[in-house]
C-alpha cells in the first residue's frame, strides 16, 4: 500500500477537531503556499542565513590559484611549493565535484603555501646572490 502525499485540514466553516482557529486547504507536500510560522516547523536541511546571503553573494566557482602554484614551483623551496601545487589541484577537483566549501578551503591553503614559497625563495635567491658577489660562494 502506498501512502498519499497530500493532507487535508479544516476549511473555513468546517468544524475544527483540534481547537485551533487556523484554516488550511488540501495541498500536496512540498507545495505549501506560505512558509511555516513556527521555527520548529522549519526544514531540517541546511539553509543560509540572511546575513550570509546578502553580505556574500555566490560568486561562482572558487579560485584554485593554479597559476600562482605553478609560478611558485620555480622557487628553490621545493617541498613547500610542490605541496602548494597539490593543494591547488585538489581545490580544482573539489570545485568540479561541487564541493565549493572544500574548494575554497583548499584554494586558500594553496595560495598561502605559494606565497610562502615565493617569499622564502626570493630570500634564498637574494642571499645566494649577495654572498656570491662578495666572493664567499663560487659558482
From TrEMBL:
Which locations, inside or outside the cell, does it occupy?
A: Membrane
**Which UniProt keywords are given for this protein, alphabetically ordered?**
Membrane, Transmembrane, Transmembrane helix
Just give the chief location class: membrane
What superkingdom does the record give? Eukaryota
Presence of the UniProt keyword Transmembrane helix in the record: yes
Q: Name one GO cellular component term.
A: membrane
The record's InterPro entries line, in alphabetical order, gives:
CD225/Dispanin, CD225/Dispanin_fam
Listed name of the protein: TUSC5 protein
Species the sequence originates in: Eolophus roseicapilla
> What taxonomic lineage is listed for the species of origin?
Eukaryota, Metazoa, Chordata, Craniata, Vertebrata
Originating gene: Tusc5
Amino acid at each position: 500500500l502506498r501512502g498519499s502525499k497530500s493532507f487535508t485540514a479544516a476549511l473555513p466553516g468546517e468544524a475544527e477537531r483540534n481547537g485551533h482557529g487556523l484554516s488550511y486547504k488540501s495541498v500536496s507536500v512540498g507545495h505549501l503556499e506560505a512558509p511555516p510560522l513556527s521555527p520548529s516547523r522549519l526544514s531540517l536541511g541546511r539553509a543560509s542565513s540572511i546575513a550570509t546571503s546578502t553580505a556574500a553573494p555566490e560568486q561562482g566557482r572558487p579560485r584554485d590559484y593554479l597559476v600562482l602554484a605553478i609560478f611558485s614551483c620555480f622557487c628553490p623551496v621545493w617541498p613547500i611549493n610542490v605541496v602548494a601545487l597539490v593543494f591547488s589541484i585538489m581545490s580544482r577537483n573539489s570545485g568540479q565535484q561541487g564541493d565549493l566549501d572544500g574548494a575554497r578551503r583548499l584554494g586558500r591553503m594553496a595560495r598561502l603555501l605559494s606565497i610562502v614559497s615565493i617569499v622564502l625563495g626570493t630570500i634564498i635567491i637574494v642571499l645566494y646572490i649577495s654572498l656570491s658577489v662578495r666572493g664567499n660562494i663560487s659558482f
